[in-house]
Structures are given as C-alpha cells and as structure tokens.
Amino acid sequence: MTIEQLNTQFGIAGQLEFIAGNGGLPMIQVKTAKAKALISIHAGQVLSYQPAGEAEDVMFLSAKAYYQDGKAIKGGAPICWPWFGADPEGKGRPGHGFVRNRAWNVIATEALANGDIKVTVGLDDTPETQAIWPHAFSLRQEIVIGDSLNLSLITRNTGKEKFTITQAFHTYFKVGDISRAKVSGLAGCDYLDKAGGGNTQKHQTGDVTIDAEVDRIYLNVGNTLTIDDAALNRCIQITSQNSKTAVVWNPWEKIAKDMADLEDHDYQRLLCVETTNAADDVREVAPGGECRLVASYRVVRG
C-alpha cells in the first residue's frame, strides 16, 4: 500500500500518521498528549518511544542503522522469531530468525478510550517463509502507546502440526553513560555467559553493571527488571509476561567498532535488556494454539 492509502485506511487524525521514513520505508508516527513514538512497518519494529515530559527517548537508535529490505534495523525493539540466537538446526539460516529484516503488514490501528493508541502489525506464512521455516503461522504484534509502551507478540499455529519457538524483544535502551548504568532484578539468577563465544553458567550477585562486553542469558527470572540510568537521572522499568529468561547485552568497544551499523562509541550509550523465551525457555505451540510474549516499558522517577 502507498503512504496515502495507509493514511486513508489506518490514519487517526491528529494522533497517528503514516510517513516515508529513512530509506523510503513506510513508518507510523504517533503523537498524543501521553507520548510520541515511531514504528517501522519494515520489521514490525518500534524505533522510538518518548513519554510526554521526558527530555530523552527511552530507546536507542543507531545513526548508522540500515533501512532496507533484508537488513535488520539497529535499535528500538527488533523482533527475534521464530528462534533467538543462532539457527537452532545449524542450516545456515539467519541469526534471530527471519521477521526482523522483512516487511510486515498493518492490521489495525485504534484510539483507545483512555487516550492510548493501539497499533497491530503482522505477518503470515508465505511460500518464501515456508522455504526457510516449514510451518504455517500467523504472527501479530500489538503495540500500545501511552504512559507506558506495551508490546505483545502473539504466535498462532495455523497448521496441522505442533512447532516450537524461541523469541525475543531485542530492545535497545538509551542510557546516558553505560559506566553509570545498572540493571536490578537479576540478583540470585544463574546465567549463560556468551561473551567471547563462550557458554559457561555463572551466578549473578547484586546488580548487573557493565565494564566490558556483556552477552548473558539469565535463567528463571522474575517479571520485573529495572535499568537505573544515573547519567540521565531516570529508571526504566521493564515488566514481562510468559517469559522465564532475559538477555543483557552490550557489545563494548571492539565489537561496536566492528559493526558497520554502529558508531564507534555507541556502546557507551546503549544497553539491551531483552524479554525473551531463550535457551531452555522453549515454547511449544499446538495446532490452533497460540503463544503470547509481553513486555512493558515505563520511565520511573523518584
């Protein structure tokens, strides 16, 4: 659909507009009394969320991000699906699945009675996806923009055989200074340490702080985590549903320099805290059944 057609069918006067974004990709721009946000239809990905009265975006978005078919956008809340991490079957398929680098469809938009805006985007299986992952599915993401940002990723099995998935909201949060940021809510959890290509199990004591490359899958986590961002004088509260694992990631200096879609010093300004079904947190979806992964982000002060 063209931008004009999208606005005619799905626009909400004064609150939700479709625009041509970077790379000419169609994007959804939301501006309300509660917040503003930017959503890329390519990848079905929230790129920006800024509550009213906040000086800074909640999300980090790379100035060097790719905006083209077949490429993932570095920043915001990419969707990893139907697997998290490397191809689980070792067939050479792309890491983190195949939905974060292709166009999605706009399913619905709605102005809710409480002043929030709800956007639903989705993907269904095609011959192309069947060649990559031979299952019939209907994937939807419900995005609710208000005082908090609420994301629900809903997997429906429309086929005749069960399948299993791992998945994630691979969310990039903006921090003022990574050396002064910490994550609370993971003390006492074991984690798989993936940094440097490893896979050793370790135990978290106290808050998570970052002073080197961090790539960890935390196991048996609770449903509330908090990023304490001292440099920006704010906390970002992350609440989840139907998730037993969480990932904390920061590339640090060398990997950031090696990534063409990151500025060399971006590692100092980003922190990924990801709501996941990863590692042994595998979800089975029966024919006609569904799986729902939910994450909510809110700025908390005082």
From TrEMBL:
For this protein, what reaction is catalysed? alpha-D-glucose 6-phosphate = beta-D-glucose 6-phosphate
Question: Which EC number(s) does the record attach to this protein?
Answer: 5.1.3.15
| InterPro entries linked to this entry | Aldose_1/G6P_1-epimerase, G6P_1-epimerase, Gal_mutarotase_sf_dom, GH-type_carb-bd
UniProt GO MF annotations: carbohydrate binding; glucose-6-phosphate 1-epimerase activity
Q: Taxonomically, which superkingdom?
A: Bacteria
Q: Name one GO biological process term.
A: carbohydrate metabolic process
Enzyme class at the top of the EC tree: isomerase
Q: Does the keyword Transcription apply?
A: no
Active site: which residues? H170, E274
Transferase is among the record's keywords:
no
Which UniProt keywords are listed? Answer: Isomerase
Q: Which Gene3D superfamilies has this protein been placed in?
A: 2.70.98.10
- Describe the family membership recorded for this protein in Swiss-Prot or TrEMBL: Belongs to the glucose-6-phosphate 1-epimerase family.
Question: What is the name listed in the Swiss-Prot or TrEMBL entry for this protein?
Answer: Putative glucose-6-phosphate 1-epimerase
Native organism: Nitrosomonas oligotropha
